[in-house]
């Protein structure tokens, strides 16, 4: 079988099954596992898939810029934001990660809620201008794609705060490879916040499931819950029903 034929088959199988297991595919095609692994390495280098131990996964689709993301699945994000806001209690210290879905949490918070909202996103801080909540904005280098601060200064500030609830933003959710995002520094910031938090929740729209972004943040079992749309298909959610994380449908 020619290299181009193998690669076309790998791409089609990845699209159909959502994963490639190198040994199983090699056995099926009567080829060496090294041949399949070499194909996967080359395809990963070209940005066609994500290599993982034993095989490959689809890449999470590249995100449009921050402004454009606000218009994607906006009603679904509003529902997720309202459900997440309902988990927040007066007196808590809450960390809101960046992103357009988490911005809906800020918009859904009652204006008279007495709580402390910490964020490293200037856009989310601005949403809380007219709220009674105390707002702490963590500084650092601005990662403009996600409109959040990153770097050593941000991590140093985060390490001085104890958080009751953290709402973590991710670009991909996978039952084995966990929660991930596209930027190395941003992933490090998210892990630092999670370490300081008693509970971590993720608001996830359907397109984020079953894929993997380049930089892992946490395992699914490391969070308290996934907040997902009530009308989401059952099959993508089935691997998470037995996980430590609670599924919250809204």
From TrEMBL:
PROSITE patterns: HTH_DEOR_1, HTH_DEOR_2. Transmembrane segments: none annotated. The keyword Transcription applies. Residues 3-58 form the HTH deoR-type domain. InterPro entries: Carb_Metab_HTH_regulators (IPR050313), DeoR-like_C (IPR014036), DeoR_HTH (IPR001034), NagB/RpiA_transferase-like (IPR037171), Tscrpt_reg_HTH_DeoR_CS (IPR018356), WH-like_DNA-bd_sf (IPR036388), WH_DNA-bd_sf (IPR036390). GO terms for molecular function: DNA binding. Keywords: DNA-binding, Repressor, Transcription, Transcription regulation. Pfam families: DeoRC, HTH_DeoR. PANTHER family: GLYCEROL-3-PHOSPHATE REGULON REPRESSOR, HTH-TYPE TRANSCRIPTIONAL REGULATOR SRLR-RELATED. This is DeoR/GlpR family DNA-binding transcription regulator.
């Amino acid at each position: 079988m020619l290299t181009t034929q193998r690669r076309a088959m790998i791409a089609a199988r990845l699209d159909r099954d959502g994963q490639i297991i190198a040994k199983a595919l090699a056995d099926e095609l009567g080829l060496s596992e090294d041949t399949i692994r070499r194909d996967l390495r080359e395809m990963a280098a070209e940005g066609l898939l994500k290599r993982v131990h034993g095989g490959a996964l689809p890449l999470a689709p590249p995100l449009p810029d921050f402004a454009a993301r606000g218009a994607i699945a906006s009603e679904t994000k509003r529902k997720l934001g309202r459900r997440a806001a309902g988990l927040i209690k007066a007196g808590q210290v809450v960390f809101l990660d960046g992103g357009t879905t988490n911005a809906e949490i800020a918009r859904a918070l009652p204006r008279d809620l007495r709580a402390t909202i910490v964020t490293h996103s200037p856009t989310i801080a601005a949403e809380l201008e007219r709220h009674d909540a105390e707002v702490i904005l963590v500084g650092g280098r601005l990662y403009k794609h996600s409109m959040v601060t990153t770097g050593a200064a941000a991590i140093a500030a985060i390490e001085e705060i104890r958080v009751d609830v953290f709402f973590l933003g991710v670009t991909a959710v996978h039952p084995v490879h966990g929660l991930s995002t596209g930027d190395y520094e941003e992933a490090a910031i998210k892990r630092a916040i999670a370490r300081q938090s008693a509970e971590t929740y993720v608001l996830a729209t359907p397109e984020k499931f079953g894929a993997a972004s380049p930089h892992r943040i946490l395992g699914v079992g490391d969070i308290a819950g996934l907040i997902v749309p009530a009308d989401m298909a059952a099959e993508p959610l089935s691997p998470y029903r037995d996980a430590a994380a609670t599924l919250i449908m809204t």
